[in-house]
TrEMBL record:
Zn(2+) binds at residues 147, 150, 160, 163. Its EC number is 6.1.1.10. HAMAP family: Met_tRNA_synth_type1 (MF_00098). Homodimer. It is found in: Cytoplasm. GO terms for molecular function: ATP binding; metal ion binding; methionine-tRNA ligase activity; tRNA binding. Belongs to the class-I aminoacyl-tRNA synthetase family. MetG type 1 subfamily. Residues 578-679 form the TRNA-binding domain. A motif ('KMSKS' region) lies at residues 332-336. This is Methionine--tRNA ligase. The gene is metG. Pfam families: Anticodon_3, tRNA-synt_1g, tRNA_bind. InterPro entries: aa-tRNA-synth_I_CS, Anticodon_Met, Met-tRNA-synth_bsu_C, Met-tRNA_ligase_1, Met-tRNA_synth, Methionyl/Leucyl_tRNA_Synth, MetRS_core, MetRS_Zn. It comes from the Bacteria.
Length: 679
């Protein structure tokens, strides 16, 4: 039997404050967490939703150094952007704070000190890279070098972003300090470690035996880690940006960001509720649920629980419904490559369309495997589902009521068998949506909510009240009463998913919010109730809007390619005598035409100083024939002739290939005599 709880504490992964948030964050963590929180509040339950920015660690220090500003200035900028994005998308945090707050510094320091005093850490002295020029130890991200797996010369000490391989700094070929550029040396340093291996028996029992109901992707990843055997993990590092390690002899050392960040859930709760925060963290009648992405599963299911267990007085999470990753147009979302749909930019391009994105991201949620966001799918779901199903039904029900009854809810008369069948069908929606939300299947729950609109559409299409209005207005009254009751039910069923649209819908219905317990009721609107003015709930998304977003991504891809351009490696050396065998000359183009039935080929007639010759060249996609007539080009004059499309080609025109695949014909800077040799 499932345990009953008095209250629910919802935590959401702390986004890293070195950039804005994107659709991957929203889909993976914040929309599902918000749906769950809104659902529980609608049920009248006691709920707290905690969020905040993760503001320590090496990437922030690196960004600050690159921009010539302080790390605090970096996090201040992005914390503001992130917080506003969440507000704009209706993510209902009870508090959204940060790990640079005074409260967090105190809570994290006290947490470390308690574990330290209890003897829960082990001290280890190891050798790490040290920058003799900057006179500091180097965190993994402060070391760059060549990846031993793919040869990328800009790999970091913890990961190669070109091939995705996890690395140790000592794996890098030709390592260099990202601070000074000097070659680092190995030097001894002391750190504190959390012995995860000590907690392995407890974790095995708690996860593998006691929480078999966890999502398969979460359970599977935990089992894989446990089966490999847990190792002690450092909780401190040599850095000047972070929370100082609160023990003697730890100068220049801070709490490792993975240890510091999850404590942010506790400190943010304490900041919000300084007197009663412990009820939410230590009372066994509080249910705690962590919403995170798959890259955080290990920290929230193994590391953080081990920390809480070692401390001894905290609850452990009841569930960790982590999602997988959302890709974008078939490619992995990447902040460093700007391959993302940023939330703050989305609302500039599509004002008022928060719910469209919430709907599409939930419909496409990467709940158990990676999924893909495409702008075409976004358009299709908006036009074919939100507009054609949900919006169409609501509009028809309200407009017909306005037309026939002046916007007043008509009374429900005698029910036909079909009416009863329809009412029975939509009465089942509550249980279906509820059962799915309770087990964190938000994608399927939203689909069930949309079935309510499908039932309504089918009901109006089958009963055709616009035809009956000519002969049987009493029947029309009953039909529209039922249609309006379904409409009012939609305002409940979709409130967790589409908060902005359901506010607009309630305004049109001229009602306040209903509680979740009323979902499935057939008497939400009383006869004679005056409705508001009908308006379109959703609008069709035109091709031009979508094409603009696709073009934005294509421009990003092109900019990335240009920024990361690197010439191809030089081929093997050739002997000088071999090179001199090539006869490269300049010729003047007399004629140029497209080769029939060959998209890539142009046929040239070239004055080579000795008469004229024909050359076939594959540059038709890069030049119009008429633009080349009269121009001078470089060509190899002594290639053996060969047939292309039945035409004998007597040479090869030289061109350079750009990084985007475009070709540029090699031309002399000033006019020379046809047949001049290239020396």
């Amino acid at each position: 039997m499932e345990k009953e709880f008095k209250r629910t504490l919802i935590t959401t992964a702390l986004p890293y404050a070195n950039g804005p948030v994107h659709i991957g964050h929203l889909a993976g963590v914040y929309v599902p967490a918000d749906i769950y929180a809104r659902y529980l509040r609608l049920k009248g339950e006691d709920v707290l939703m905690i969020g905040g920015s993760d503001e320590h660690g090496v990437p922030i220090a690196l960004k600050a150094k690159a921009e010539g500003i302080t790390p605090q200035e970096v996090v201040d900028r992005y914390h503001g952007i992130i917080k506003k994005s969440f507000e704009d998308f209706g993510i209902t945090f009870d508090i959204y704070s940060r790990t640079t707050s005074k409260t967090h510094k105190e809570v994290a320091s006290d947490f470390f000190r308690k574990l330290y005093d209890k003897g829960e850490f082990i001290e280890k002295t190891t050798e790490q890279y040290y920058d003799p020029e900057a006179k500091q130890f180097l965190a993994d991200r402060y070391i760059t070098g060549t990846c031993p797996h793919c040869g990328n010369e800009r790999a970091y000490g913890d990961q190669c972003e070109a091939c995705g391989t996890s690395l140790n700094a000592t794996d890098l070929i030709n390592p260099k300090s990202a601070i000074s550029g000097s070659v680092p040396e190995m030097k001894e340093t002391k750190h504190w470690y959390l012995p995860l291996d000590k907690h392995e028996p407890f974790l095995r029992q708690w996860i593998l035996e006691d929480h078999k109901e966890w999502k398969s992707n979460v359970y599977g990843q935990c089992k894989s880690w446990l089966d490999m055997g847990l190792q002690p993990r450092a909780v401190s590092r040599d850095l000047d940006w972070g929370i100082p390690v609160p023990v003697e002899g730890a100068e220049g050392k801070v709490l490792y960001v993975w240890f510091d960040a999850p404590i942010g859930y506790i400190s943010n709760t304490k900041e919000l509720l300084p007197e009663t925060w412990e009820t939410w963290w230590k009372d066994p009648e509080t249910k705690m649920v962590h919403f995170i992405g798959k890259d955080n599963i290990v920290f929230h299911c193994i590391v953080f629980p081990a920390m809480l267990k070692a401390e001894g007085s905290y609850n452990l999470p009841e569930n960790v419904p982590a999602n997988e990753f959302l890709n974008l147009e078939g490619d992995k979302i990447s902040t460093s490559r700007n391959w993302a749909v940023w939330l703050n930019e989305y609302l500039i391009d599509m004002p008022g369309k928060q719910d469209v994105l919430r709907y599409v991201l939930t419909a496409n949620a990467p709940e158990t495997k990676d999924n893909d966001f495409t702008w075409k799918d976004f358009q299709a779901r908006n036009n074919n589902e939100l507009v054609a199903i949900f919006g169409n039904f609501v509009n028809r029900a309200l407009v017909l009521t306005e037309k026939y009854f002046g916007g007043k809810v008509p009374a429900c008369g005698t029910l036909t068998d079909y009416d009863k069948q329809t009412l029975a069908e939509f009465a089942d929606v509550k249980a279906a949506v509820e059962n799915l939300l309770d087990i964190y299947r938000f994608r399927d729950a939203q689909k069930e909510a949309m079935n309510l609109a499908r039932i309504g559409n089918k009901y109006l299409a089958d009963t055709e009240p616009w035809k009956l209005a000519k002969t049987d207005m009493a029947r029309v009254e009953t039909i529209l009463n039922i249609a309006l009751q379904i409409t009012a039910n939609l305002s409940i069923a979709f409130e967790p998913f589409l908060p902005f649209s359901t506010v607009a819908l309630r305004n049109m219905l001229n009602v306040e919010s209903f509680g979740w317990d009323r979902l499935g009721s057939t008497d939400l609107l009383s006869a004679g109730h005056q409705l508001g003015k009908p308006e379109l709930l959703f609008e069709k998304m035109e091709d031009s809007v979508i094409e603009a977003q696709v073009q934005k991504l294509l421009d990003t891809k092109k900019a990335n390619e240009e920024a990361n351009y690197k010439a191809k490696p030089i081929r093997a050396n050739v002997e000088f005598d071999d090179f001199t065998k090539l006869d490269i000359r300049v010729g003047t183009i007399l004629e140029c035409t497209k080769v029939p039935k060959a998209d890539k080929l142009l046929q040239f007639k070239i004055d080579d100083g000795l008469g004229a010759r024909t050359i076939i060249s594959g540059i038709a996609q890069h030049y119009a024939p008429e633009d080349l007539i009269g121009k001078q080009v470089c060509f190899i004059a002594n290639l053996a002739p060969r047939k292309l499309k039945g035409i004998v080609s007597e040479g090869m025109i030289l061109s350079a290939e750009n990084n985007d695949g475009s070709l540029a014909v090699i031309m002399p800077q000033k006019t020379v005599k046809p047949g001049s040799e290239v020396k």
